Amino acid sequence: MTLYRPLRHALVLTLLPLAPVWSQSVADPISAPDMHACKARWQDMAREQGLNEVTRAQLIPQLEYLPRVLELDRRQPEFSSTFGNYLNRRVTDTRIEKGQALLAEHSELLDGLTRDYGVPQNILVAFWGLETNYGSYLGDTQTLNALATLGCDERRSRYFSAELMNALGLVETHKLDPQSMRGSWAGAMGHTQFMPSNYKRYGVDGDGDGRIDLWNSTTDALTSAANFLQQLGWQAGQRWGREVSLPRDFDYRLAGIKSPRPLSEWQRLGVRHAAGGTLPVADFDAALIVPAGHTGPAFLVYQNFRIIMRWNNSQAYALSVGLLADRINGAAPLVHPPQGELQRISRAQIKSLQERLNALGFDAGKPDGIAGSGTRAAIRAFQASRGMIADGYHSAEVFQALGVDLTVAR
Question: Does one domain contain both 50 and 173?
């Protein structure tokens, strides 16, 4: 997600060119005629959406193509981080300590946001920490040019053209300075990394100065984040989830984000608090996830975990938000930290694993190098057929059993 930076008064007519952030020479897949055609299309869109003449005459003609943006859009990561590596890079002692300091510094604001929106203070601070390291890095790509580049690329033209129109509307509505609007290469902006549509839909003028500034106003950014989470359906008074311990003979086929059960059922199955003790008595469902397989930590996750995943559709990200929030509140480290994982796994290796599963009759779907729910289900079925612990995790043991050489597909 994301947001950005404003003009102080009215929109100036003598705008400087929006210079590209990247200057290196790369093969340009969008020719000048294509960009010209895109600008003509955006002029029509801007007119239909009621954007003013200054925007149409001054901003759209100055939009520039950034080769580096498409490079980043096309570049799929060669290696995937394991859960342990992902978590350890994000939930660090430094980030925990900084979060605790900011929790105290902004206590009055955060108390009010929890009261008004139902989102806990530590959750808001954790999002802030994960998105921009508490505002220390907001991104350096010019937002309008990034959106224009992606909007003129046929792969996701409709989505990014709409986001470009939203961004231009924000310039008008909130008197944002186009020169100062910088963020991620994908157009996400501000302390909480809102895309323009989310800025427009969920942005809140928290400090009451008459404008929504997600770059320079921490109050606006955190208030907007609280509003966004509330609108997504955050359940006030409910946790995101918790680390649990499992009985020695646990059936890992019951795990998975898509297999929720009542807490009372998990209790009956022998699931307990990680540090010991019974689960709470509460009338709601939870799903069990084991992000590092049976040798790593296990978590029961609730509805608010799904809300975090609507912010960023990644279980590792959502766990990092929840665990960072807990540590900021003084919780102890994980009882069962990830261990014994592969350091990193390439997409080529995952693709080889998927191909091998499919060849053996375990449907992993189209081999794409991404270990999603279908791949995990196929691994689980394969493990069960071989008498292995069916946790659905792509461990070194699974690669070996499938005959996929981890030393090759790198």
Answer: yes
